[in-house]
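User: I've been going back and forth on whether these two constructs are worth ordering. Before I decide, could you fold them both?

Assistant: Sure. I'll take them in the order you sent them. The first construct and its structure tokens:
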Amino acid sequence: MTWIQSIQQAITYIEKNLLEEIAIEDIAREAHCSAFHFQRVFSILTNMTVADYIRKRRMTLAAQELISTDEKIITIALKYGYDSPESFTKAFRKQHQLSPSEVRKQEGTITSYLPLTIHVSLKGAEPMNYQIIDKDSFQILGSKRTYNCKTGENTKNIPLFWDEANANGISELLFQQNDGVIDGILGVCVAHADYAHTDMIDYWIATSSTAHSDSFETLTIPASKWVKFEVHGAMPDAMQNTWKQIYSEWFPAHPYTPAGTPELEVYTEDDPSSPDCYSEIWIPIK
């Protein structure tokens, strides 16, 4: 089964179980990957969290039922996982900008989300420069914070973490500590070690360094086979576009899958706003 087929199988599983309690671990199992990795890839490919997709699909179907049936609103609310009319109305209005009662009266327009279909687009594909590298384990030195992938907290707060690191001098200090194993400042995404918290990630702003410091923590990155992608262009768009291209085009066309260990974004001292800015993405593969 290809990578794209695995993701599509997981989406099909979601669609078949929209009226049930859906655990992210069960969804990820359909894609043959970890809960952390599935949530990360899903967000990269769709620009929404798994939880957002499930909510949008449920609210789409709920609106259709309000229009086409005479079922009571509370009955429809319970059917789609809401235990009160108030919580249902809040979620419903967030998507449709209308209340369930207004939709039933056919006042205004509804916002509908169709089931996702993942596919590879062959039109206008940009070239990708990459290198396969075998690298021994190495140590990183830096600061970390923990974020919730399920709620999209990582997407919202990681840029703020970078703003803070650049403003208070942490980035400059880390550049000074770099040992040359990987040149630059690293953004490192690590699945949470506690299995009970599969929605959580540790995100590091760090550098490769054998040093120890009271101001920073250390983490050992395991020996791996890596695929290193070149990223050219201004941040953050160039980095985000390359991530999407990797998972929608590169992995489907190559005999590798992500290893599930820490992934790296590598930032150089280039001006991040320059169209000539150079950076890298490192993904461990198997």
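The second construct, handled the same way:
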Amino acid sequence: MKKIAVFTLLLLSFSGHTQSKGMFSKDPIINLENFQKQRLYFGYFLGFNSFDFKIDYKTAGPDIQVKKTTGFNVGVVADLKLQEYINLRFEPGLYYTKRTLNYPNFTTEKDALRDVNSTYIHFPLLLKFSSLRTGNIRPYIVGGLSTTLNLSSNSKSIDDNVQQKFRVKSWSTNYELGFGIDFFSEYFIFSPSIRGCFSLKDELIRDNDPNSPWTGNIESLQSRAVFINFTFH
């Protein structure tokens, strides 16, 4: 996530520098002044993600370590104006990510490591609360609910961790919170944002053996993630 944060800061700095005359001057030229008066408009986004697991245990013991990687997001945006400062947003997208679980108390890597590759189709329905527009800048906060289909869940597999198959449920529900800034350029709106996504239910499919060393002591396993998206309208 450090690389993502540095990239975001560099991009925002570049955007601010290139648009400084139109956005940050004392008397800026107002770009796309009537754009947000539209009832409905569309866009697309590209971005990065970092997924983790929140793991609760039945009994105390050594924690399972989760190694995170940086994934990639792409999707579309439909934005419906409800009120001057409130919009309803639907942002379906495709999210790629990978997590590696490192189990303690195993002597071989074959048993200790489980790669969890995930391809998500993500369906968030969000409310966007915007502030007053200042020149060509408009900050906002966003929050709502989402549902996610994991195409790589292995949920239909009859094999389990004994055969090195780590299984999770296909569908999950989540809540999301975040913030962003709309930058109004001459021809389009550029909107970087950061958002947290938190699963609301247990996603783990237990092994066939109730005393499995991989799943037997897990009370619940829930995804959580950070999204950094760059939206263009």
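Notes on the second construct follow. The radius of gyration is 21 Å. Helices lie at 2-18, 20-23, 109-112.
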